[in-house]
Write a structure and sequence with these properties.
2 copies of one chain form a homodimer.
Chain A lengths: L10 H8 L3 H8 L7 H14 L5 H8 L2 E8 L5 H16 L3 E6 L7 H10 L2 E8 L4 H13 L2 E5 L7 E3 L2 H14 L6 E4 L9 H12 L7 E2 L5 H10 L7 E4 L2 H13 L9 E3 L6 H4 L6 E3 L2 H13 L13 H9 L5 H9 L8 E3 L14
Parallel strand pairs in A: 1-2, 1-3, 3-4, 4-5, 6-7, 6-8, 8-9
Antiparallel strand pairs in A: 10-11
Helix pairs in contact in A: 1-2, 1-3, 5-13, 7-14, 8-9, 10-11
Chain A binds a DNA duplex through helix 2 and helix 4.
Chain lengths: ~375, ~375
Amino acid sequence: MAAGRKRAPSIKDVARKAGVSVSTVSRYLNGGRNLSEGKRKVIAEAVEDLNYRPNTIARALVSNEFQSIAVIATDISLYGSMQLLQGIELAARRRHYLVTVTLVGNGHEKVKETVDQLIQNRPVGCIILDVERSSLLHSFAGYIAQSLPTVIVDEADLASGSLRVGAYEGGYQITKYLLRLGHKTVFHVSIPEDDKKFTRCLGWRRALEEAGAPIEEPLPCTWDFRKAEQIGRYLCSFPEITAIFAGNDEVAAGVIRGILLEGKKVPEDVSVAGFDGNPIGEVTVPSITTWRQNFQGIGAKAVERLAHWPDSDDQPETKGVDGTHKASEEEELDLDQLQQSRAMGDEQISSRLIIRESTAPPQSGHGR
Amino acid sequence: MAAGRKRAPSIKDVARKAGVSVSTVSRYLNGGRNLSEGKRKVIAEAVEDLNYRPNTIARALVSNEFQSIAVIATDISLYGSMQLLQGIELAARRRHYLVTVTLVGNGHEKVKETVDQLIQNRPVGCIILDVERSSLLHSFAGYIAQSLPTVIVDEADLASGSLRVGAYEGGYQITKYLLRLGHKTVFHVSIPEDDKKFTRCLGWRRALEEAGAPIEEPLPCTWDFRKAEQIGRYLCSFPEITAIFAGNDEVAAGVIRGILLEGKKVPEDVSVAGFDGNPIGEVTVPSITTWRQNFQGIGAKAVERLAHWPDSDDQPETKGVDGTHKASEEEELDLDQLQQSRAMGDEQISSRLIIRESTAPPQSGHGR
DNA sequence: CTGAAAGCGCTTACAG
DNA sequence: CTGAAAGCGCTTACAG
């Protein structure tokens, strides 16, 4: 098996061709300190002639580190995860890291095995892409973090250990915006897993609390957007609902469709806002008001976090314990801490409200 | 640098703990032929106790093959590429391959360098994801194929060397469907790069030719879907246009929006069909008729292709020349060959027309 | 069935 | 500034 492939030229070939020792070639390859101009030139030529590239695998073996970043996710087909992944790749490329992607289904299969194998690949670090806030992934975060620098990117809006996508902020802002428009309250159709702590849903709730507006329990949608359509229709039976905040733009589209199908108008009869900033929202009818998240920027941040992980370079003995559990501190954070860390502007990432056609002040006579 | 990380238990540790030689442990790890029950048991225990996992990097060094599949793309944020990637990952996982993703921008930067580095990683094979049919990527395909088993997945509907996404077929079918509805002809709004050979655009053209319908040059859209909206508006100035086939579902949404904004109706005044089967088309108003492509299935096929690459296993001396240039044979294929290979049912993948609200027979009085 | 040895391609001290 | 040697963690013949 395997075998067969023709071996590429090795450092030995270069050394022979250049008439120097392997160590000298190695020195040349690694910055070339302490190297005479003569050798440098002759080696350069040999490298050129042979079209030699150092074997990354061999390097990884001795350094015990493969220049790569392992991305673990349950699904990458959502708009957010994709953008995140793309942002990660772009940033990784700049640092000459290879990015690796591994999907771990929610069917608990042999996740442990998969994860163990991943760790054996000795990546520089691991990014857990958990846009869906899958409990599966979160439960493995700690385990992974024991062996690898790990950062979690999820919906959560938390301060340490994981990067916040700003969903809390977004939920809060979009709800305030709707309230400012004159709506008495805002109804929420949540995406799966979105009713946990620190998410867009929490932001929505907080905005309503602050305004003293009535709070109805959110209706959960699924990743099948036709469910959103059903919800939209259903919601039409409550004339007092004049504003809906949907968990993402696709759900918003579905809800809008449901409403239109019932013969009501958006935004005249009811305003609907989405979330994420999916470009599709620009071209639907009506176009969809949304909260744009800078996914690519966040992905890049995650990579930088890993690249600057406190390690033997910076703080020789700090690694391990210190870095290890950050990822799970999430559980202990509360909103106040959150507010505070936000105030400190740490990890702030540009995101913003995009107002389009699907939202407007309530029609007079409506609202309750 | 690098350093610092605590080394995981090695095969040596296992050998010591089990009281056997390293070779014996290795034998155990690789299937365990010629191993006494006693040793087997004691080694199993040692492995368990130490939570030992073989170092994939070391293995890769000796076998000269890292159990991974390298995916190269210019962009993975389109619906199609994402699904493809996800399909690749799923199939790769079954075979215990790691998948690696590399984006090469269209800005010709240091693509060569990036690609060379990728090759040094010794993946099992390479999948070029070229949904956009970037000439950049295609120009590197041959180069990569010289060192690695390579398969190209693109819009093309070709037989050998690259997997067909069935776009030709789709364009053909969707156009015929529109024609059958009674439209005199079908206008095409193409996605970037889609006016090349063997694509949905070609299928569209062929269907019109067969029907003897008038053929207008397609209007090219960009990846910015607001451009599609402009096109939609523009197209309204031609009342003879009653049916439009858009290059993908997002473009279709944009075109529809443009038409609606002009005060016309879809599908009453003009029918609009999309392409790809993006779920978003289910919840727009109107919902969008489309051609569903089985992206995940195609991704999986690509992986299998690589896994079964004729190599030292199957045909010891065939590799190299044989596998190498398949990828570029594309250029020589013509439609007849295409038809033929399709007839042979090779690489056939389930795709189908999905009829929704955005298409209907032309209103009487319209059509020309 | 089992072990000692060599080697994969590189880097890292260690001597000159 | 330069080279010989050892070693990273495994696998693969080669002897027993």
